[in-house]
TrEMBL record:
Phylogenetic classification of the source organism: Bacteria, Pseudomonadati, Pseudomonadota, Alphaproteobacteria, Rhodobacterales
Transmembrane segments: none
Residues annotated as domain HTH luxR-type: 49-114
PANTHER family per UniProt: DNA-BINDING TRANSCRIPTIONAL ACTIVATOR DEVR_DOSR
Domain of life where this protein originates: Bacteria
Keyword set includes Transcription regulation: yes
Keywords on record: DNA-binding, Transcription, Transcription regulation
Pfam families listed in its UniProt record: GerE
Designated name of the protein: Response regulator transcription factor
Keyword Hydrolase: no
Species this chain originates from: Alloyangia mangrovi
PROSITE patterns xref list: HTH_LUXR_1, HTH_LUXR_2
Length: 116
């Protein structure tokens, strides 16, 4: 956990609390807190989370996963329950964000960025 984190609801800063040895030791050793922090750390370090942090929408991140899996547009539309023209729209936005002209280029760029 970063020492510069702050509590969003109160605006208070954690560093003064972390200087307290008892509090720091509790945060570092309490199984429920360690478990929660581990889950949180895992959720923000997934390729999809990195793609979202990199500027992709939820739908673009979904499409990226599907095209990387070899899904054609028709199957993507069935899987996501959207029309094929909508798939094409989202893919064009995805390609633009990745600077790609084709699926292969988009997948290659996404791998290079750690999004897949």
């Amino acid at each position: 956990m970063a020492a510069s984190a702050s509590c969003p609801s109160s605006g208070s800063s954690l560093p003064p609390l972390l200087r307290e040895a008892r509090i720091r030791q509790h945060l570092e050793t309490a199984p429920d807190i360690r478990g929660t922090l581990s889950i949180y750390a895992g959720s923000i370090s997934t390729p999809k989370a990195k793609a979202r942090a990199g500027g992709l929408t939820e739908r673009e991140a979904q499409l990226l996963q599907l095209i990387a899996g070899g899904y054609p547009n028709k199957r993507i539309s069935q899987t996501l329950n959207i029309a094929e023209p909508t798939v094409k729209f989202h893919l064009s936005r995805l390609y633009a964000k990745l600077g790609a002209k084709k699926r292969g280029e988009a997948i290659q760029s996404a791998h290079a960025l750690g999004w897949l």
